[in-house]
Amino acid sequence: MTAVFLNRARVLIAIVGLTALAAVSGGCGSSAPTATAPVASIAASPASPSITAAPAPALAVLAGDRYFGTALELPHLDRDQAYAALAAEQFSQATAENAMKWQVVEPTRGQFSWSGADEIVAFAEANNQLVRGHTLVWHNQLPGWLTAGSFSSAELKSILKDHITTEMSRYKGKVYAWDVVNEAFDDDGTWRESIWYENLGEEYIADALTWAHEADPTAKLYLNDYDIEAIGPKSDAWYNLVKSLQAAGVPIDGMGFQGHFDLQYPFPTDMAQNMQRFADLGLEVAITELDVRVNTPATAADLATQADYYEQAVQACLAVRTCVGITVWGFTDKYSWVPFTFRGEGEACLWDENMASKPALTAVQAALAAKP
Ligand code: XIL
Questions:
Q1: Predicted confidence (pLDDT) at residue 5 exceeds the cutoff of 90
Q2: What's the Rg (C-alpha) of the chain?
Q3: Of 65, 100, 233, 315, which has the maximum CB count within 10 A?
Q4: DSSP string, 347-366
Q5: How many Cβ atoms are within 10 Å of 91's Cβ, its own excluded?
Q6: 58-369 sits in which CATH class?
Q7: What is the pLDDT of residue 32?
Q8: Active site residue 347
């Protein structure tokens, strides 16, 4: 972690801390509390029962020098006051769940649509939240003009460079870290057959990182993927790639572990060890898209196991000194992507669809509070 990061986090903690103290029971569904009034009333009556009934501090506060963030989605941020209030109150980092993806920002070639991304960046700024940019080079959520176009390799290369440069320049100085390349490998550790790999070969990764560094030299440049929490063929592929990129002098700062867990599979108990080997290469590491899906409807036992998965994920990050933070992929079951993507699964978040807290939230709070 850089000094800049720590200082920024401390400022943020001071601010978010006041907000958290002011939060009303559970925080869920309440409008954003003011920073001063409830703090003053606590100070004025130290023995009042409201102190013992005080809610847990915000996740952002409990996380200390690390950030605790969430993916944010539109239009909920505009239309659902309880959603916006909880997002502002609990988190110290924001990722656009979709608003910064290629399909959204450049639906027509050369015509950019920044309104959603701008709004999320403005929300984060207003609430002293770091922004993780997501994502520049991916095989998914690409606009039709790009996937259906028959471009030469040279054209594709220049399209990719333009995209990275344009998007990063717009948010230069406002985005703390970018997921420059997302999901480049298949589960068996072979290269994913994407428009990028098929047309540009594996050099597209080094090129993307180099262009990204030119566009915003202070942004942290991340590689990011799912199902790489355990040591195995896919995480090995990334590990070897990072080493070869570093040997070639390619700028790279971090490795993002998405952390989309599923109760159908055991929790990868070597997650901390795996993250540590990337940290040992000199990288920051982060959990970038944490959620834990279950077969729906979840039983009480499922929710208890889910809490245990969340806790283990948090503990894995806490065990690695340069694990800079944790981001959940949405915080409420009301809007989670999971039921739309995984048939029969859902209830993956820390808060339920009524924005009431779940056992997983308590477990995460406890794990953060217990950190050394
Ligand atoms: C998902 C979003 O949550 C959905 O709303 C969208 O329809 C598809 O993408 N890995 C990633 C994220 O890097 O961008 C994905 O987000 C989830 C998996």
A1: no
A2: 20
A3: 100
A4: --SSB-TTS-B-HHHHHHHH
A5: 27
A6: alpha beta
A7: 27
A8: no
Residue nearest to atom 15 of ligand 1 (CA): 97
Count the helices and strands in the chain (H runs, E runs): 17, 10
Q: Which of 73, 167, 183, 284 is catalytic?
A: 183
Please give the torsion angle defined by the CA atoms of residues 213, 118, 6 and 71, in that order, rounded to the nearest 10 degrees.
Answer: -100
Q: How far is the CA of 55 from the centre of ligand 1 (A)?
A: 31
Which residue has a Cα nearest atom 3 of ligand 1? 337
Q: Which residues pair with residue 288 across a beta bridge?
A: none
Residue 39 confidence (pLDDT): 28
Res 50 pLDDT > 60: no
Specify the amino acid at residue 241. L
Residue 183 is a catalytic residue: yes
Beta-strand runs (E) in 152-235: 177-182, 220-225
Closest ligand 1 atom to the C-alpha of 330? 3
| Pocket around ligand 1 at a 6 A CB cut-off | 97-98, 182, 226, 258, 289, 337
Q: What is the pTM of this model?
A: 0.88
- The one-letter amino acid at 199: N
User: Could you tell me the distance, in angstroms and rounded to a whole number, from the CA of residue 237 to the centre of ligand 1?
Assistant: 22
Retrieve residue 217's tokens. Answer: 């030299």
DSSP H/E element including 289? strand 284-295
Query: Which listed residue (289, 311, 345, 347) is catalytic?
Result: 289
CA of 74 to the centre of ligand 1 (A): 13
pLDDT digits (tens, 9 = 90+) for 213-265: 999 999 999 999 999 999 999 999 999 999 999 999 999 999 999 999 999 99
The Cα–Cα gap between 193 and 161 comes to 20
Return the amino acid letter for 255. M
293: amino acid identity, one letter: R
Give one DSSP letter per residue of 308-340, joined into a string.
Answer: HHHHHHHHHHHTSTTEEEEEES-SBTTS-SHHH
Q: Give the ligand 1 atom nearest the CA of 340.
A: 7
